[in-house]
Amino acid sequence: MTDEQAVKRGPDGLRAVQRAADLLTTLAGHPAGISLAELSRVTDYPTSTVHRILGVLRQSGLVRETPDGLHALGVGTVVLAGAFLDGVDLRTQARPVLRGLADETGETVHLGVLAGSLIVYIDKIDSRHPVRMVSRIGGTNPAGRTAIGKAILAFSPDLESIVDDTAELDAVRANGFATDLEGNEPGICCVGAPVFDHDGVPVGALSVSTPTSRFAPDRLFEAGARVLAGAQEVSRSLGWRGNAVSPAAGAWS
Fold this sequence. Notes:
By secondary structure, this protein is α+β, with helices and mostly antiparallel strands. It has helices at about 5, 10-30, 35-45, 45-60, 75-85, 90-105, 145-155, 165-175, 220-235, and strands spanning about 65, 70-75, 110-115, 120-125, 140, 180, 190-195, 200-210. The chain is elongated, with a radius of gyration of 20 Å.
């Protein structure tokens, strides 16, 4: 029986599909590549099983081998990612708000969604300043360390364990926005707020990120209120009818 047939038949086939998904998720966390032995160790799957599934994934273009002999995501994942991003209405609805926040603040603005214990940036507008946050669409970060991730997790009770300090989520729920003050990346401060769909389910979050040198701690709540107002505008465009919070008056700078 071929590898392709093995992943299609019965419980063993379902198990192979799950393992393939786990391998792809692990590879996503190692963009430069990872060795077969390390991939086996991280996933706790037998080396022979990992090798066999990687062979199938390579045939589909989802996995590639680097010149150093490491295993990494292949060009096929770009096709899938593009199709995913094209189909996410959230991006379409959020884009004008992202542009407005970027124009108003002059800082980098992100839109992200939750993917397991990670957040994935699905849209971004760069700061107009020469010193800015280095990130990319499709990039990931640990959800529990980012303003976007904490903003989503605060309203996702089943996922609170992803955050080390769950008491912090109480503050997010009380204020309506989350902060990441150099917790994820030294020298970068972020403020994020959740975006809800028509059922009140958090489907993403947006954030404004600024170098610490341009961040004013005494205006944190003003910054949070502005990001929150933007997130609520996106939420309303998705059919959300929750209670709004009025942003603070004054300029960002």
